[in-house]
Each structure stands twice: as C-alpha cells, then as structure tokens.
Amino acid sequence: MPIYYPDVLSQETDERVFTYTRKEVILYALGIGMGADPTDTEELDFVYEKNLRVVPSAAAVLSNVFGASWPPPVYHQTKPGLRHSSLDPATVLHGETKVELHRPLPAEGTFTTKSRYVGAFDKGADKGALLLSEATWTDGNGAKVATLSNTAFGRIEGGFGGPREGQPKPHAVPARAPDRTVEVHVPPGLAALYRLSGDTNPLHIDPEAARRVGFGRPILHGLCTFGITCRVVLKAFLDHDARRIYSHQLRWTAPVYPGDTLAVDLWQDEDQISFTARVPARNVAVVGNGLTVLRK
Q1: What residue segments make up the domains of the chain, in order of their start?
Q2: Architecture of domain 7-154
Q3: With left for phi above 0 and alpha for psi between -120 and 50, is residue 10 left, alpha or beta?
C-alpha cells in the first residue's frame, strides 16, 4: 500500500460526532489495570460511578466507542486529482502518541472529532515510513477540547520519496538518575480486557495473528502501555488529581507483553514530569522520551 508525497498531506477523515458514557470511562480505567485492589480508595473514583473521574490518557481512545479503532480510520483525499495513500494495517505499528487536554475531560459527553495527516517521512526502502496525524475534539460550541497527535510506522512503505529530515524532535529526558522508579505488573489477561476499549487488532489476542507479523506471542496494546504510564504519574506525583495533567506523551521503543513487570523511571522538573519504562526481566527498554506537562 503506497504513500504518495506530498499528496498524502491533503488527506483527512470525515468529521464525526461521538458520545462516550461513564461505562466507557470505567472500562478504560479497568483496561489499564486500575481498580485491581478494592481497598485502594484513591483509584476507586476512576472505576466507580459515584465520584467518577477520567484518566487523562483515555482521550486517546474514547472517541472510538461507536467504531473500533481497528482497522485504522480511513483518510480521504480532499483535493481532486491527487493520489490516495494508505498503510498496510497488518504491518503498521504505533510509534508515538500525545494527548493534549485543553480542559479536563468530563465523566461523559458528546464531541466532534476529525483527523488529518500533518507529516510523512521516508526512512528508506528497507526501513519503513512514518505518517504523522493529528485529531481534534471540539464541543457543541466549536471550542477545542483535546488534540491527539500520533505517529504510525509503516514497516513496508519506505522508499516513497518523501523527506527524511524534519521530524519533530522527541522529548529528551534528564541525564541525572531518576527521582523515582515505580514497578507495575501487567496482568497476563490485561490485553483481553483493554481491547474492549476499541482496538480489536488480533495482534493483541490471537497467537497465530501475532506470529504472522513477526511476534512470538500477542503483545500488549501500545495505548494500554500509554495509559499505564499516565496511571503511574497520577499516583507517584499528583495524588490521583487528573485535573492537573495538561498533556501526556511517549515514544514506544519495544513491545510490552502481558505478564511483564515494568519499571517506570520518572523525573520531575517544575511542571514537567519526564519518564521512560523498561522490563528488567528481559533487559529491554519499552518506552522512551515520555513527558507529562502539568496544567498551570
């Protein structure tokens, strides 16, 4: 499935109105491992409708509640005569993601969303391609609620002739030792629960599907790892006050497998919390360049 440059930068999705409810908010929190301890009253508000709060990273998936995020959304060519680009959904990987919340998310709501491609970079014929997309949420008055930025890595689409330079630079974490390290165990069945938030890609549950694309067994959803790191920041620095998070972003460097134990290294510098994550038992770094920006 080819990428045509610069035509691809004129592709966008249709505008879509979506509604999420308290049920989807709770299901997301459960899918990133919250609520496992019924005596943990701080996590209770994220999985119990009585005083329900929204994990900020949930913005990455809540717009998919009436349409699964797998396969990926269709980007239409908006200018006549230009060629249509696409990635092979069987080989595409999620490279980076960022959620910006222009105001804290309510426990339920109706919004309008639309996505567009904002960048395309050629890593080489044998090295793949990167497509950068941006989605926005607006409310009924047209005010911006959230901005979601994503990088998709197409493993077989390299060599399309696009630029190799000019990609946004990843956040550089501090060179000093971490201020704090938090260990999080990923339950073996977490991917089966998380997929109910919209990403039904068989790569995350079907061993045969995982083997077909080069993995020995199903891997955890990248956006589940994204949510786990947001959960760690909330607990380690913010006393679970979700309203304080303005943005949360990271870059994936290797897959996480259900059953892994993550070691999340964190650094705090005023209103910025940097983080990375690794799996000590496999001696592999799985998250790099993480950054949470606090609301001022």
Answers
A1: 7-154, 180-294
A2: Roll (3.10)
A3: alpha
